[in-house]
């Protein structure tokens, strides 16, 4: 895939973009959250940041993060089932991590279930594991 700053990520079959979500995007993000994480309570705080992935203008994924001082917490990453395994989740995480690094996060945290298949994605992006029972807390220190 080739990255194009104007459009997003481009391949011969797919054109999509990743951008910081606007207030008008929140209903679409909330709808995706309900579909992808039906047992999760929707809670947005004033300092939350969302990134949205779109394909041909249609929302297909999101990343939700919270910045607190020099820490970043990834609160959610989701891509609609039909669009998985095409690099959208990776692109969303890279954008979120770039934002966190650029806004002074020294450490980024992410909780996942131990059997979550996306764990290998997170590990490939520099996270390391800290196990807490059935939950993994993945930690990433900002690259020097």
Describe the protein.
By secondary structure, the protein is an alpha+beta fold. Strand 4 and strand 5 (58-68) form a beta hairpin. It has one domain: Gcn5-related N-acetyltransferase (GNAT) (Aminopeptidase, 3-Layer(aba) Sandwich), CATH 3.40.630.30. It is built from 3 helices and 9 strands, in the order E-E-E-H-E-E-E-H-E-H-E-E. The model is unreliable at 1-12 (pLDDT under 50). It has helices spanning 26-36, 88-102, 119-124; strands at 2-4, 8-10, 15-20, 48-55, 58-68, 71-79, 107-113, 128-132, 135-141. It has a 9-stranded mixed β-sheet, with helices on both faces. The chain is globular.
Tag the structure with descriptive keywords:
144 residues, Aminopeptidase, nine-stranded mixed β-sheet, 22% helix, alpha+beta
């Amino acid at each position: 895939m080739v990255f194009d700053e104007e459009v997003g990520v481009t391949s011969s079959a797919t054109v999509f973009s990743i951008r910081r979500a606007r207030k008008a995007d929140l209903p679409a993000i909330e709808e995706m959250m309900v579909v992808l994480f039906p047992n999760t309570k929707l809670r947005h705080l004033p300092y939350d940041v969302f990134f949205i992935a779109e394909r041909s203008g249609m929302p297909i994924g999101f990343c939700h993060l919270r910045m607190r001082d020099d820490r970043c917490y990834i609160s959610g990453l989701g891509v609609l089932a039909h669009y998985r395994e095409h690099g959208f989740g990776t692109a969303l995480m890279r954008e979120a991590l770039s934002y966190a690094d650029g806004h002074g996060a020294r450490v980024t945290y992410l909780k996942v279930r131990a059997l979550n298949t996306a764990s290998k994605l997170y590990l490939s992006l520099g996270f390391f594991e800290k196990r807490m029972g059935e939950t993994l807390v993945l930690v990433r220190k900002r690259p020097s």
